[in-house]
Amino acid sequence: QHFHAWGERKLTGSGRANDAYLRRFKDIHRGQRCVIIGNGPSLKRTEMSLLKNEFTFGLNRIYLMFDDLGFATTYHVATNKYVVEQCGDDLRELDSPLFTFTKNRRFLDGFHDVGYLHRIMGTWFSRDLSRGVCGGYTVTYVAMQLAYYMGFTDVVLVGVDHRFAATGEPNQLVESVGPDTSHFDPTYFGKGMKWQLPDLENSEISYGLARRAFEEDGRRIVDSTVDGALEVFPKIRLADALK
Fold first, then answer.
1. Which one of 105, 144, 156, 176 has the fewest CB atoms closer than 10 angstroms to its CB?
2. What's the rounded mean pLDDT across residues 109-117?
3. CATH of region 2-167+202-241
């Protein structure tokens, strides 16, 4: 069923144009290093200045930090429907290529520097974006599949705290009633914004698949998050990871 839908998508003009857009990124960073920047509070204790000359993936609302950083991320990934729906205007203002799920297209009308990813359900790691991606319960996992497709050999994680102040059922849709203490900025999911609580257990399963896929190909993912709770990837200080 999923691959039938994928085949139909290829027949449309917009589908073919999107496939061509995605192919532009195939292996363009072969042998290079990138940093995937999460949105945890630990970013405020991270030497972000070290990332200025690195290839970077920003996730969701990382753009709230751009003024403080003094630079924008190389690529941007936002896949959650509620993030894209509420922040579509912000995302359209970005100067970097944006990657999101195909179903979010309606929230990004008129924005051209965007690659639409066909989400296929299940738990797997996609090595080929043209065949779709796995959501993996976290936008960070989608960024890992993008990094693999682009050919990055070394991936460094920062700000992937893997712990949240907000409590509730995994994937539960909630509405913020005050400042956001689960992310680096209190306005990240500020009062009145809707967001889905994390599914840490299923995220870890996804991360395990990412580690295996990278290591099977002689590549690696390391975790340089300050005091992060994730135990899937080798831990290394950011300054050492970037040597």
1. 105
2. 89
3. 3.90.1480
